[in-house]
Amino acid sequence: MPTRHAPALLAFALCLITLAVNLQAPLYITYADLSGQGAAATAVAFSGYVLGVLPVLLALGALADRVGRRPLILVALALSMIATLIMLLSPSLASLGVARLFLGLGTGLASATATAYMSELMAPGESDRAATWVTASTSLGFGLGAALTSLCLLRGPTLTPGSFHLQLILAAAALVLVWRLPDPHPTQSSAMLRLPYYPSGSLAYGLAILLAWACVGLVIALLPGILRQHGLSAWSGFSIFCVISCGLLFQPLARRMASARATLLGLLILPCSYALLAWGADSGNLAGVLLGAVAASSACYGFIYLGGLAAVNKLAGQEKTRASAGFFLLAYLGFSLPVIFTGLLSDRLGPRLALIVFGGVLLLGCAAVALALWLASVRSPARPRRPSGCAPS
User: Fold this and answer.
1) Is residue 166 part of a domain?
2) Can you tell me the mean pLDDT for 235-241?
């Protein structure tokens, strides 16, 4: 039987899995310098994460039913430790791409079972809080890793910051703790291949999260190099923490709003917050960067994420798992392809013009998706619904 502390132990493990994902982010520009590469190569290495996530979303949706919940969490923890070891032993841009691939695979495995496992470990009357625990622990981890590394780098430049060793120690402890957790769900045979599904009316919400996570990906992959031009490299990890984890502050408000209204509000905030963030990065204004990152986080990990996923789950009927996979597929495409394209522009035309072009496309995209959502909501307004799933980065 699940114990009273089991949900907290699982949340601890999920936080350690996602903490490893952006642990190396403040060192991206250093890896690029060591490899003699620029922003485009950095963006490609960064996008190795998506190559790990996509196979799970596309083909391994039933793996948790076949092997159980706990083994996937254990494998995800092990993969996070392997990725951290790779960067400790061989710090380079090529190693970063490989490490990001392992991190994406681990996060995908954890995402495939986190909410279901959390609900099974909770008392019957508390299982509806499972998504809240998962979203909070993963969002905190995604941002905390970069912030910890930035704190370590304040003591001086190094390729082996203490945050890497801390992740290894805590993840090893989490392995032992998760190994002792119960696995109440019985294994069962089911079709392994579950392709993503887009119910009628859901595509606009998928495009909204694509735009939102494109903005987050840009901050994580390219902002450290831009900030270095103004002597602000030490703050890159904190900007990443702000653009991811501060979205937690806005999730309670997003849950109380209708899905379409929450998503529309996020689409309104997103281009405005990006403009502030980009101006701060280009001019070396730290306050603008951090305030813009917090505002963007409210849209990306607050209103658009929760509102969009809630709407997709409502529209999906009995196909919630496949519809969620479709939603996250678009999200991760946004997390990678626009970042690579912007990195190419930055290398060829300079970071300022690259930021302007990205901002223009973001503004047009937000306007088009918002118009489509507004027209759809006028015909059939959506009610708020508590979403389920694991918040990726």
Assistant:
1) yes
2) 85
pTM score: 0.82
Evaluate whether 43 touches 204 at the Cβ level (below 8 Å): no
List the Cα angle 240/241/245 in 5-degree steps. 125
Q: How many domains does the chain have?
A: 1
In a domain, 31, yes or no: yes
| Residue 121 located in a structural domain | yes
Helix ranges restricted to H, the chain? 6-19, 28-35, 39-46, 48-59, 63-67, 69-89, 93-121, 130-153, 162-179, 203-221, 223-228, 236-245, 251-255, 259-283, 286-298, 304-316, 320-349, 351-379
Name 4's Cβ contacts closer than 8 Å, sequence gap at least 6. none
What type of residue is 245? S
Q: Can you give the residue range of the structural domain that contains 103?
A: 6-181+197-379
State how far the alpha carbon of 69 is from the alpha carbons of 138, 185, 255, 384, 390, in Å.
17, 7, 27, 29, 14
What 3-state class would DSSP assign to 389? coil
Percentages (nearest 5) of helix, strand, coil residues in the chain: 80, 0, 20
Does residue 100 belong to any structural domain of this protein?
yes
- CA distance linking residue 252 with residue 329, whole number of Å: 25
- pLDDT at position 61: 60
Is the CB of residue 86 less than 8 Å from the CB of residue 180? no
Q: Tell me, what CATH number does 132's domain have?
A: 1.20.1250.20
DSSP class of 62: T
* 8 Å CB contact between 291 and 303: no
pLDDT of residue 121: 84
Radius of gyration for the alpha carbons in the chain, expressed in angstroms and rounded = 20
Per residue in 73-123, pLDDT tens?
Answer: 999 999 999 999 999 999 999 999 999 999 999 988 887 777 778 878 887
